[in-house]
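Lab manual, section 2.4: Encoding a predicted structure.

Procedure: take the sequence of the chain (684 residues), apply the prediction step described in section 2.3, and record the output as structure tokens. A sample record is shown.
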Amino acid sequence: MAKSKPTAPAAAQAPRRASLALVKNDPWLAPFEPVLQQRLARLRARLAEIEQHHGSLANYATAHQQLGLNHDARRGGYVYREWAPGATALYLVGDFNGWDRQANPLQKLEYGVWEVFLPDAEYQHRLTHGSRYKVHVVTAAGGKDRLPATLRRAVQDEQTKDYAAQVWRPETPFTWTDQKFKTAAAVPEPLIYEAHVGMATEEGRVGTYREFADNILPRIEADGYNTIQLMAVQEHPYYGSFGYHVANLFAASSRFGTPEDLKFLINEAHRRGIAVLLDIVHSHAVKNEAEGLANFDGSGNLYFHKGERGNHPGWDSKLFDYGRPEVQQFLLSNVRFWLEEYHFDGFRFDGVTSMLYHHHGEGVAFMGYDNYFGPAADEDAILYLQLATTLAHEYKKGSILIAEDMSGLPGLCRPIKEGGVGFDFRLAMGIPDYWIKLLKHTPDENWPLGDLWHTLTNRRAGEKTIAYAESHDQALVGDKTLSHWLIDAGIYTHMQAADLDPGAARGVALHKLIRLLTLAAGGEGYLTFIGNEFGHPEWVDFPREGNGWSYHFARRQWSLGDNPDLKYHQLGAFDKAMVHMARERHLLAAGPPHLLKHDEENKVLVFERAGLVFVVNFHVEKSLVDYRFWVTKEGKYHVILSSDNSRFGGFDRPDESYVYETFEHQLSLYVPSRVALVLEAVGA
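Recorded output:
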């Protein structure tokens, strides 16, 4: 027998594993690398398990093809399946069987799945396009009519207000013509127009997908935005929830039109070179049993956690059990469904902070790395998000994934192979909060520009951010739009272009500076909320009992922005010029901004980005003559954008035709008060 070699010391046998790229780039993460490695290992194990049993992650994400009501041409009929392991009986009911709760019982199969087959020979003239149906679920507590979990369309009865599932099989399927559209080519850097279809009309009513496609898409294209983020698409029973109490995850809201209408909108956006993101809600769901999934099989623990863990403390809603394989598959299938069925180009994941932590971010200040990796982290939710980002990127190349997270979790927007969660961008939620805080509590002359610059530029290196001055969150009733904070009652009385009211002039000037500074310094993408590009004057408030079910604040007053005699039109013209400048210079794809001068005394910030020089004077009254600052590139410069241009409601104080020349790496400019100038090297 051969003599064995001496055993090497453990350290020599197992050299230290190379650090993840995420840790290499941020040494402060070193103590938490075991957690990151464990997350990565768990993901790989789960993917291997999925691939072993289903072939691929995409094949696994097909629960909607197995569950619900699906026509099977091979078998010659409809197959209806539902996952309800805790139920004692299920019956398919609808207008096709006179809503007879005993006529069509389901048979229980393996794994808690129930099934019934309805042959075409018997039902083809009864179960047709437009038919309404539900599932009657019997539990130990009795029987209830429920909406199927994966229904594709839910409609509300005008008289009873009751929702039912609806068969949707139009004779002529929608014909897509967007085969040549490529998200990555259309969106080199995202300039996002956040929109709500229902409130996109000026009339006091619910707007439609078709109206949005016909009337709003041309505006978005002309304004230069290359991405639309559609809110409130997933079906929700209460219109006033802004679409965040979702009941039916696979259904496009029928209050805005048909599935073909939504497809038409997206197809038309693609024709115009605009990507469309879905504001997807996987962080929670409506607690309603009549319309939603709560207590579906009587167990109290099917799609959602059991007991108090299943209730969100602040949102009055239900919380998904991400650790349950069937729930994981259900939500992943939802990701695939919207990419496949409606050709969405990615998602803005709502409420990611709530998903990442057991405390949901409620009352927690994220002050150190321990907050991210301790026992408060919901590892099941993190695994689900890693699976979801993997699926989306694999299923649709170039898809854009944005996380709404206020915690700042390191690696959230880095590739999974580096130890990240796989999102592409996170929302810079601190920026709009800071602007509102300034406007509420600090006089203009006391604005701390150092704090402002820190807020705009304080983001994790290598993790892309979507900057915004205001979104739907800031515009909701209880708060005000930026224009309302800035101009107050003057938004109703002093917005004529010829009106020289100083309060309105101040508000218009600062509105432009706030948006330009946010876009130019705040991130690698930019977002505005529908109407706010022209300083929409009022907040958003959907019809509800408290306002007499009024649509007055759930609409957009386009006529204000279109009227050349109003300051709103001037604000819109500036936004258009600003966005087109950012597109043409690929401003957001450049590296981070480089601060050239921070002048607290004169209230001036000067910085460079993408070869452009930005000069912003926030002083309430001081216009600066022969104002000097260093630039990195010597030569001649000219103004390519001035917020003081009369087209934008300014006073034409700087001479925009003048060519400036450096002297010993310095430029000397005339910079009027409350004005921003953007300069470019001549010949650049």
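Check your result against the sample. The first helix runs from residue 10 to 13.
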